[in-house]
## 1
Amino acid sequence: MKIFSAKQLYEADAITLEKQGIQSIDLMERAATQIFNWLHQRMQGAQVPIHIFCGIGNNGGDGLALGRLLIENGYNATLYVANFTDKRSPCFLTNYNRVKAITKKWPILMTSENDFPNIHADDIIVDALFGIGLNRAPEGWVKLLIQYLNQQQAFRLSVDIPSGLSANEALLDSEAVIKANHTLTFQAPKLTFFLPETGRFVPYFEVLDIGLDPEYLMTALPLAQLIYKPQAQQFYKQREKFAHKGAFGHVLVVGGSKGKMGAVSLSAKAALKVGAGLVTAFVPACGNDILQVTVPEVMTLPDAAENHLTNITLDWSPSVIAVGMGMGQHPDSVASIENLLTEKKLPYVVDADALNVLSIEKKLLKLLPENTILTPHEGELKRLLGPWKNDFEKLEKAKKFSGKHKVILLLKGAHSVVIYHDKMYINTNGNPGMATAGSGDVLSGLIAGLCAQGYDPLLATVFGVYLHGSAGDIAANQLGFEAMMASDIIANIGSAFLNLFQQEQLSQESESEPN
């Protein structure tokens, strides 16, 4: 599924009107009908009071059309218009007159906080104040209205986007955004739904198809691609019957220091579990016995030093090198990373302390082979890129960094984002239980294991993030969020593969609901 900018969605509207020979008011009627159908399917005529708050633009026009449909079908709907300016869109005016033609219960014009209605906890609030074109924060009594609605215990349903958010721009005013319980968005999700600063206002959403031109949607270059199960299914590479372990590559995991051998163990085990043919761990001497006992399938190469890495020497070439997990930042270890990058021009997955080394020793960035995979969490990313003002600036800085250094950036989070030059891929699974020690080490090993099997580095990263999230979801269903450990994610990697091609037992009401 694609994510489009607000500008692209307006272009899609215009092309749809031209190709289908319809007017804007007809497209608005489609949108309102979809929302009505969604509500009607769930309410089945129940006389719960529905309070629809409309702006004076096209989003407000959607709300008026929805209110008319609800009233015509016997629902207890009341329309309110936030009358904060004399400027109204033509479609808003058309739908306003249509409401007046079918009921004496005309929209209530609101001009101040004195007009705020009483709302019962069992009522429903429909937010149709502002749409994706918002370019400044709501102010004055309209801001107070948004805050008033947020204080109510009633269910809040937003039309297309919670009022106060922009589709692909930074948060304007966090105190002037509807905190929607659910959002019904038109045709495609919005980028703002998936970012930490703004996504908290969109805990659940569903996409409603309003029939925008399919050719445009197919050919337009999106802001980002969402990764769901159908995409992940296409990534999977079937194994040949007569293949042997040598056909699935050899991962070298480099890392560890005294007290931090668990990170290497988790990465090495994840690489094996995802299908790498062979895995070797290069670790300080203190970690040799630990690896041999905890992951007997892994071979080891001990460093000459006891407690940290000092001299990573190889007389062979692995398929891929995953480096940094639990390594520490001892000067000897930093020097050994520089030597490794200088001598071995191979595919790399760079994580944890190796990322911090790159942040300190910027010259090492020039040694990274093209399509090296960097897997920073928020803190590591900030050390790499420098500070940013908001999530959208963060993405722009990440894209520039990726393009400049020709690397793949994996921004880990609730919705992990894979960035390759100007392309972005947003993962849709995973859960809060995965915010646990070692989860990132598992992910790095998992991605390295896919690279070893011949997956393209970008594909390995996107697919690896999906499998990691899927394994975490399966573990959470068994254990709950709080009881999950990183090793539980590894234990369910096999189930994640099987889940790729299993039919769902029950149809999910909204596969597009973020976890």
## 2
Amino acid sequence: MKKKSTTPAQEEKESFSLLTDFDIHLFRSGKHYKLYEKLGAHPATFKGEAGVYFAVWAPNATAVSVIGNFNYWQSGQHKLNPRWDESGIWEGFFAGVGKGETYKYAIQSNTGEYLEKADPFAFYAEIPPRTASIVWKEEHTWKDDVWLTKRKSLEGKAQPYSVYEVHMGSWRRKLEDGNRSLSYKELADELVTYVKEAGFTHVEFLPVMEHPFFGSWGYQLTGYFAPTSRFGAPQEFMELVDTFHQHGIGVILDWVPSHFPGDVHGLYKFDGTHLYEHADPRKGFHPDWSSYIFNYGRNEVRSILISNALFWLDRFHIDGLRVDAVASMLYLDYSRKEGEWEPNQHGGNENLEAIMFLKEFNETVYGTFPDVVTIAEESTAWPGVSRPTYLGGLGFGQKWMMGWMHDTLRYFKDDPIYRKYHQNDITFSIMYAFTENFMLPLSHDEVVHGKGSLIGRMPGDEWRRFANLRLMYGYMFTHPGTKLLFMGGEFGQTSEWNHDSSVSWHLLQYDYHKGILNLIKDLNSFYKSEKALYQYPFTEQGFEWIDYSDSENSVMIFMRKAESPKDALIVVCNFTPELRTQYRIGVPVRGTWKEVFNSDDVKYAGGGNLNVGLQQTSPVKYHGRDYSLSLTLPPLGVAVFKLNEEQTEFQLS
């Protein structure tokens, strides 16, 4: 008897699949943003049997099978079937395979190559240098409802962002246990407590996604959907995030959609062809990092990348994504010489496909999670990075203020005797401070590759170096914009960061270093408690110069303002080691002013040159104002003043 023929659609219904026709339509059109629910390895039950459903995108393969311990790593035994819809997806369900199994995809390419690849959608991976994926299902009962409710209530509102940037593998190491890194569980105890006591509002992790080379600091990824197994299982990283949230601290992740490495088990030539990356090396190879650039013009690639961004926000409750190396994505000629790049269709150097991708990424993230933040590390003057896409911007929530960082570090490196010739370096940032939603970064990039530590850049003897560092931090926290500080900087680490070593915690036995940590704790508290420092962080409404012209004495005076005039602060910076007494400044209102912060306080290991008691205004006109104060300016110090009583005649320009 002749077997009854079946259509491809009927055959599909007889097998297990998580993918629907609509999923395929979205994927192929570049609009499927939850592919992590469909592709990869998913424990499931089919016809009463427990097993795992596998699905992988490999359109140029002629055969794909799953290999692992369960079949002695022999290809051809657990074959995946190509979908009939020409999506390029191979899938299959195998009973008896379960959670915890290691596996890879054995791919026979139409180029004749045989490849063994880790699963791009794996939720868990072996500890490097092993490279297999692990079948996993995230299981965690979240306890951060209070945090998420608060996050939602603050959506669209000004709030302080004081971010502690951390490389998990080297924050603190167990010397007594082979100099190993802390686990996620240990970090949930030690790091959370430390960050809370230091007063930071957020922690930002260098990439936690799986990466084969520890020395890449996580910026060369192979497992975009898997937190690195070096420190524990995925649910243990969930517990770490949850613990931060329960202590009122947000979690930001570095995210790297700009490039990926060429490791044989990774994304490069995944199915034997340039699937994820551009085939043209002028667009597909990154000369700076010897890595490969995503093909942002390919719909499926955009779906995968945006799905990855949403994955961390959805499954891991992450509060923000800092996008690495945005400038390298925006420009076709980035780090390329003439002849090494190809202009776009209009003859320009803009990467139109990457621009489209970044806009779509931000629109999707904010459309799905409007209470999170995206932050761009973008080092050029590209306009509108943190402006809405409907106004022509890229749509990021914030942008790193790289110009401020470079100008500030260059200025502080100079001996104070020369600073009078460089007053413009320290005041120039205000000229463009409100063109973007800027975050002020003193990041990991500034304490590596021979740059030394922050304290090591400060000139002079020990007293002057630490006074300079206290002054720089005081200036940073009172400058418009949000804040970011890399680990070790909060207590004046003296050595350059080394990813194979612990932060130099032993330095906290010394008064100068303890003083820096006390300063950061107080600055964080001050920043969070004073509306003038965070209510208008990105607009001119929150800032007013009092005087920036005293280059001879290297003094700078400005006001930070809030919605209520009585919350205004006056900030006075003295960038020389000279103690200045009876220094007169103009103020906007008559009354008594109180010093509310001074970086020279003895609790910071300073000299104790404070303005004690209330400072009464004098009817002496100064700096274009009707009233003035006569103050003591601490050497290499910053002092902040606030009106001590209710006033009804506050006059702000």
## 3
Amino acid sequence: MLPKKRRTCSMNFRGNAITLAILAPLAISTALLAIPAPKASPTPVLHSVRMVQQSIPMPDGVHLSATLYMPGDAKPGERFPALLEYLPYRKDDAMAARDYPIHSWFAARGYVSVRVDIRGFGTSEGAPTDREYSEQEQLDGEQVIAWLATQPWSTGKVGMFGISWGGFNSIQFAMRRPPALKAILAVDATEQLFHDDIHYIDGMMHFDEFELNMDLAPAMSGAPDYTLDEKILGPRFESAPWSLLYLRHQRDGQFWRAPVRPLSEIRTPCFLIGGLLDGYRDSIPRMFEQVKAPLKAIIGPWNHTFPNDADPGPQIEWRDQALRWWDYWLKDRNTGIMEEPPLAIYMQDWHAPDPHLKNVPGKWRGEIGWPPRNAINTTLYLYDAHVLSTEPAKPAVHELRYVPSAGVEAGFWWGELLTDPRPIDAFSLTYDSAPVKMDLTILGRPHALLEVSASAPQADWFARLSDVAPDGTVTQVTGAGLNGAQRDSASDPKDLVPNQTYSLDIEMHLATWTFLKDHRIRLAVSNALWPMIWPTPYAMTTTLQLGGNTGSRLTLPLVPPSMYATPQFAPPELSEQRSDMQDAGFPLPGDWKTERDEVNRKAKVTWTGKSEETYPWGKETDFEGITYLADDNHPESSSVQAEAEIVMALKQQTLIWQGHLTLTSDAQNFYYKYTRQLFKDGEPLKQKTWQETIRRDHQ
């Protein structure tokens, strides 16, 4: 059933484009809802910047390491608001070159911008926390915020910001509402840890380089000496790998929900930045629907990155928008930012599939909230002839044989620039509309409402929306998956009854797209999306039931032209870089290679990534490699082999940390083995292995 806020109507592909019933509500004059032009913020007086290393005490005696980027020419007694970024990623080496252009930019404009390593990471004291977003991390963070608010240079007002982890915990602290926290800015972040985060994408098991990196990184001591003192190194090296912990929690529940509170509890103003190629983008519509505090959001055509360094572009400057936000909430200046439409989103025009696309064609659109005003949900029904039509179909049943190794072309997560997905379409049930008679634009989350069954007790379903150009080229627009065992509850999964029909609502991830005249709309349905999702363990055939008003169907959120002024953004500013450090990180998504043995029906995907950083005290080289294996004859026996290595070439010694993971499965269990090693000048210094058999829990 569609949410009450949604409206439905029909779209006529066989006649003259769209019926008058649709055109009428879309044809509202844009002049009726014109908005004032954005106020220009006064040009700030730029300060010099000085960096101060600071130790922040916790109640249990542990000290957290902080770098304060401060206005260097402050007058005696002058006070500034504080901006906090709070991460496990090491601020004094791995992230130093990245941190400086961001934090110094805000410091030069009258803020104390603060970068803190969480407990047990980098140069902060203590043992590493046992998971992401632990209670200890959050309690420490509240102490940090209180400390920042009471410093002699502070106005008492604190903002919090960050991308990915820093965005996640910014949202979490807005939920906790520490008194001094007055506003946040979260980039590429979500509050749904089980469904959205990369451990269980759409509630289904996933493994990638982040987990490989975070299994090894806690074992390191801090820069620049990387001490081998057992009192410091020992607790870090002995800390259990997080991938093992997450494998023990294969369903939603208290473990995943503990770090977060309801969005409705947020009272802190939130500025959200997301990307249409980022896996966490769905949190922004949810926050517009549920958060009562003031909101501002920008959603561009980007992957998991800051907008001024985005690939693909178009790139925009975001720090100037952040400055207007901080000035409004932390300095009580009317910068005009709250007088503009709260949401700016990039509307993607059609483009051919191209993993190397530099700029996504399209234009910016303003909206006053969510769902978009005058959006109309249009229903297309799946037909026996594998077409989509606005009229309900006659009853029919389509069968699909499960191919566990299908899915490489659909991407690493629900984003990215992809190749043509026709190779996976060949192992899917596909349904195409007739060529559309006029341009059609979607903005929102399409739904695949499917009537399904499976011959096995466990199955996943994946729905992908694509654009088929007149020459046959296919561009994937969006998609999503659903674990059939979680059809009613992600926290209480239940086996399927073989051959029983179930109704599934697969809500696809946020998308914008214009289907051009003469293009076709395609829905593809499959039961595998490997290696993004770990294959289910049983050979099977699944079915789609078609026919009638409740048969399998697709809903698309169509929108008319915007009724608001087009948002305007400045191009990226040149950023000051640290002259003493250089960072040559590998570009995501790294290097992929696919190999298939069609005779024996086996497949292998290998991924590698490498980065280098140069510091005054030495050079760091990081390498990660993952090999995924799938066997179509034995879907239960999938595996991952993964290696990570961090080489720290110092003047006096070379230290090498290595992590080795083997993860395999059969129909009943996962078999986990992880070994962590430390070498000094080529000689083994420390080693620890974790090995465990974990029962499959509907994954």
